[in-house]
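Hi there. Long-time user, first ticket. I'm pasting a complex I've been working with (about 877 residues overall). I'd like to know whether the download I got is complete or cut off, because the file seemed smaller than I expected. Thanks.
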Amino acid sequence: MNWSEITVHIPFFGESIFLTIDVFIAWILLIVLVIGAIVYAFRKRKFPVIRDYLYTTNHRKVGTLYMIFGFIFFLRAGLDALFIRLQLALPNNNFMDFQLEKYNETFTSHGTMMIFFAAMPMLIGLMNIAVPLQIGAKDLAFPFLNAVSLWLFVAGGVMFGSAYFLNSSPAIGWTGYAPYSTAVYTPGAATNFYVFGVQISGLGTIFAALNMIVTIVRHRAPGMKLIRMPLFPWASLVTSFLIVIAFTVLAIALYLLMFDRLFGTSFFGGEEGDPVYWQHLFWFFGHPEVYVLALPAFGLFSDIISSFSKKPIFGYPAMVISLALIGFLGFMVWAHHMFTVGLGPMVNTFFAVTTMTIAIPTGIKVFNWIFTMHGGSLKTTTPMLFAIGFIPSFVMGGVTGVMLAVSAADFQLHDTHFVVAHFHYVILASTILGIFAGLYYWYPKITGYQLNETLGKWHFWLFLIGYHMTFLPMHLTGMQGLPRRVYTYGSDEGMTALNFTSTIGASLMGVSIVILVWNIWQTNRQGILVGDDPWDGRTLEWSVASPSPEDTFTPMPFIECTDPFWDAKTKGQKLKTAPNPRPAPIDEHTVLPFLMALAVLVIGFGLIYQSYLTAGIGGVAIFALFIIRSFRDEHTSFHKEGARHE
Amino acid sequence: MKKLGIFPLLFLLAGCTNSTVLNPKSTTGKEQAFLIWFGLGIMLFVLVIVFFLLARVVINYREKKNGLEEYRPKFISPKKQRKLELIWTIGPIVLLIILAIPTVSTGLKQSPVAEAESTMDGVHIDVTAKQFEWTFIYETDKEKHNILLLPEGEPIILHLSSMDVIHSFWVPELAGKVDLVPGKPIVYRIENPEIGVYKGKCAEYCGVQHANMTFTVKVVAKEEFEEYIAK
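Hi, the file is complete. Here it is re-exported in full:
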C-alpha cells in the first residue's frame, strides 16, 4: 500500500490542506483524546481545579503546568523519535510514509520540540517548583510575569505542534539552516511555523530567566548568602544569565529570518546576504543552549547526590566556580559547529582549543560528585539511581565531545550519526535523566505523594539500558559513513545490525516511559500522603508542607549555614526564625496571562498564513490586555483586603 | 555497575576495526583517522579512571542495612582535599595539551580555505552542487555529473561551490567533509588517494532528496585519468 497517496482536502486560510493518512489518523486520535479528557473532567468534577490552574500565578502551580505541558510535548517528540528509528531499523526500509519529506518533517519536529518544548520547559518547571522553596522565597519575584512566561511557552508549543495536524510541518531541521529556510527554497506556511513557534516560546523563556535572576538575587531568606545557597539555585542563576544572552540572539536571528521570509529582505540569502551569518547567530545561541539544558541538571544532581549520600557536597566553592566557568566558556565555542564551513585554519584552531578547555571545569564537577559519595552512606532511591546512572553516561558523552573538538577529526565525524550519538549522550544523560530525577525527588513537594519506588526502578533500568543500546551503536554507524538526517541506507554498508540494535533500544526507552506514566497515574489514584520530609532532606524545601502551600515560610527561617534544615535536624532543633517577615511578591488570581498568550497565538497564526488582518486583530487584543493590566494592581487590592481582615 | 561500564567499551572497540572512516584510503584520511584514534585513546584513559572510581565508591559506600545509627560521614582532610582537587584540575589540562598539539598542527594544515587565499599545486577540480546533483569540472573543461574520477597518488585540489542551498561533500574513505556554501567558493585538499571505488554523499541536509544525493568516486591510475579528462 502506498501511504502517501491517500489524502483528504480541507480549505484553510485560502489554501487547501492535504491530509495524508497518518495526519488523518492523528486527528481522530486527538479528537478522541480531547473528548475523553473532557468527559473525565466532568465525571470527576475537575473543572474547579482546571479553572484554578488557569488563573494561578503561584510558583508551584505554574511549575506543575510547565511540567505537564512539557511532558505532553515530550511524548509527541518521543513518538517522532520512534518513527525515525522504525524507518531506520532496516536498510532500504519503507515504514508507512516516513520517507523523504515526511522523514525530514519528523526529525525537524523531534529536534525542535525536544529542545524548545520538552527539555527546557520541564527544567524551567522544576526551577519554578524548587528554587523558591530552596532559597526561602515565598514566590518568584514577578508572579504575573511567571504566568505570562508559562502561557507564552504553551502558545508556542501548541502552535508548533499544530503544524503537523495542518499537514504543514517544517522540514528544515531544528537548526533551520539558511538559505534552505528562506522563502526561495521552502515557501509557504511550514517553515513559518518553526519561526513563530520558537520565537513565541523563546519570549516566554527570556521572561522566565529574568524572573529567576531577580528572585534569586532579591528574595533569598535572611542569612542565606549566595555562598550558602544550594547548587540547584546556583545552577538556575547561571542558566538564567545564559538564557537572557543566548535567547536574545536567537530572537534576533528569527526576526531576521522572518523578514527574509515575509518581507523580501535578504540577510541570509541572495546577492547581498550570507547564509553563514545565520549559522553564527544560531550557534551563538545554540551552544550556550546546550549548557542551558545541562547546568540545571548538574545543580539538581549535586543536591540529590548530597542528600542521598548523607554528606554535604564535596568542594562547594569549586562546584560554583566551575558552573560559572562552563557558562562563560559556553559563549566562546560556537564555531566548533562550523569547522567544515571554511572559516579558515586560524578560526578552526582557536575554537578547537577553546572547546577542549570546557572539559576542565566539567571534569572537576564529575570528580566532586564522586567524592561527595565517597565516605557517605548511599541510599539507592530512584532519584539517586538516576544520579548514579547520569555520571558514567554523561562522561561518555563528554569524551566524545572532546574527540569532536579536534577540528580535523571533526571533518570526518561532523554531521554523522557519531555526532547524533554524542549530543544525545550528553543531553539525555544530563537533561532527561535530570528531569526524571527531579520529578521523582520533588514529586512529594508537587503533589504530596511519593512515586512508587519499584516502578521507578523499572523505569530507570529500562531507560538506561535502552538509552545505551540506542546511542552507543550510533558512534559506529557514524564512522561507518552514515550521515545524519538521511532516511535510508544501503544493505551493503554494513550497518544493518547496529541500526536494528538502536531501534530495539529506542523501543525500550518507549516502554520505560509507559511505566513512568503508569506510575504517575497509580500514585495519584492511590493518593497516599507522605509528609513534609520523605527523603530525609537537607535543604529548605523539606521544611515546608507537602504539597507546598501558597503561603510558605511563615515565620521566615534564618539561615546560618549550607544545608540549614539538615543542620537543625541533626541538632534536634527547629530552624531559627527571622524576627521580621520580608515583604513578599503578591500572588494573583487572573486569567490575563492566558489571554495575552492567546492573543500572541492569533498574531502568530496571522503572520504564518500572511493574513495580516488576523495578525492585526491579535495585535489590538494584546494592546487592550496591556491597558487592562495597567489598570489592575494586585498590591492595592491585597493591602485593602489585609485592612478589611484586621 | 562495573560490568555495565566495561561492556559497551569493548563493543565500541570491536566495531571500530572495520569502520570506513578508520580505514581510510588517502593520506588526508589517514591523518584524520589517527586523530580520532589518538583522541579516543586519551579519552578511554579518562573513562576508565572515572568508571573505576565511581564503581568503587558506589560499591563501598552503600547504606549498611543495620548500622545506620553508627553512620558518621567520613570526611577527607582539607589538606588532602586540596591535593585531590589540584590533581583533577591539572591532570586534564595536561591531557588536553597533549591532545591539542596534533589538533593544532593537523587543523592548521587541513582546514578548508577561501578560494582567493589558495595557491596550491595539484589536480584542480571544480565541484558544484545543486539540489540534488553533483557536477565535476576538470581542468580540460570536461564536465560530468555524479561521477568523480581522481588520479592515484596526486594532491587533489577541490574548488567547491553551491548553486542553491548549502551541501557538504563527503567521501568517508578519502577525507572529511567540506561544505559547499552559495556565493563562497572554498578550497579543500585531499592528499594521495589510493585506487578504488568509493561512495560519496551529501552530508548537509539540503532538502527532500538529501539522502539520495550521492555520487561515485573512482580513483584510477594517472594515465587512465589523463585519458579520461582529455576525451
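A couple of notes from our side: The longest helix of chain A spans residues 100-135. Chain A has one domain: 46-645.
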